[in-house]
Amino acid sequence: MQKNTEYIGYNSFFTKKDRNKTILIPWFTDFLSPFIPAVAKLAGYNFVNCPRTSKTSADIGLQYGNNEVCYPATLILGDLIAEIQSGKYDIDNLAVAITQTGGQCRATNYLGMIKSGLKNAGFGQIPTIAVSLGGNVYQNEQEGFELPVLKIFNIGMNALLFGDALNQMFASAVVRENVGAGRALPLQTHAAFLFDFYMKKGEEIILQNKPKEFYKLLKNAVDDFNKIVDCSGAINRAPTEKIGLIGEIFVKYNSYGQAHITEWLQGKGMEVLTPPIIDFFVQSFVNQKINQQNGIKRATFSTKILTPLLLKFAEKRVGKFDKIAEKYRFYERNESIFTKAKYAAEIIDLSNQFGEGWMIAGEVASFAHRGINRVVCVQPFGCIANHIVAKGIERRLKEHYPAMNLLFLDIDGGMAEVNLHNRLEFLIR
Ligand code: SF4
Question: Residues lining ligand 1, CB < 6 A?
Fold first, then answer.
């Protein structure tokens, strides 16, 4: 009979003497990930992005992870281990970090899974960090890491809003450019060049910690994106067919995570609209109110006084960026989170806040109200949360919006892309 052996947990902690270590982070998305190391530098940490997620990430994530976790968890683990195995880093001078939002889904278990994956891969000496805005570090021992929220909040928020605006301009310009030129993606287009150029400029502004410079930068970007439209003989100025892309946050925004379906759709001449990432953060204003009404959270002095102030600040800031971005010829106004919540409440109770929660319903409804009646919703393999709040409300969505064509796609590492494309083909024809 096998003897019980003592369980030995992960005992590599990020201590104060580790502060100067290189901190590896998984790739998230093209319009945000390049800004993260620059913001971290202001906070006094040396963050380094893993390369863009790839098939190698999926294979290695499956090898060292647990095959019952959701697909984004597999990819994140694979990103980190593949990069550590690349031999580029001094292991004794390395740590890894991931963000933690504290959602009610498996996201809260990522850190434990990463620790066991690192151990399995022979890297158990690498400390791990949970990065969280709220200061709650989810029972991770990391006394050497503290996020100076006040110091980076202003620049971080402007970087995020700038990334959202740039991403929207890129998505509408790239498809018009290619359709006009009669060619399929991917190619190095003017739009792609401008996107990269302005992301680099954004990094420079962050490193200088000059949040207001982002307004000027966005204005220049708008002018340049408008020039592609005005000057290029190859541009298609006619309205394009629009399609909404929503779903779980990682697979929606990560190109490999969503099996490159955005590029595939753009190659077919479709303008792919994804909701801005700012919505993911500001939904907490709605959630907080609902949780208080439901008796789950107490109204405290801080929620009574600080939350309205914070909301006012956020609305003002979003309005400032919108005012500049709306000069772009193909600007698409995003409805406010409160409008989306109002739409969502007709479909699903707003206390559904796990995974993407009620936002799926709100986003589908918002597209319908804007006359966009084709929406793809991507869900990762193993994501029970989003299966419930997305596919689970399909019938109700169809009852409310009968003209809406909804396609729910499950994404995982072993799927055949041809099947995805077949189903998308039916949606866009
Ligand atoms: S929402 Fe789904 S895919 Fe995303 S972390 Fe939670 S369980 Fe995983």
Answer: 70, 72-73, 103, 105-107, 248, 250, 355, 380, 383, 385-386
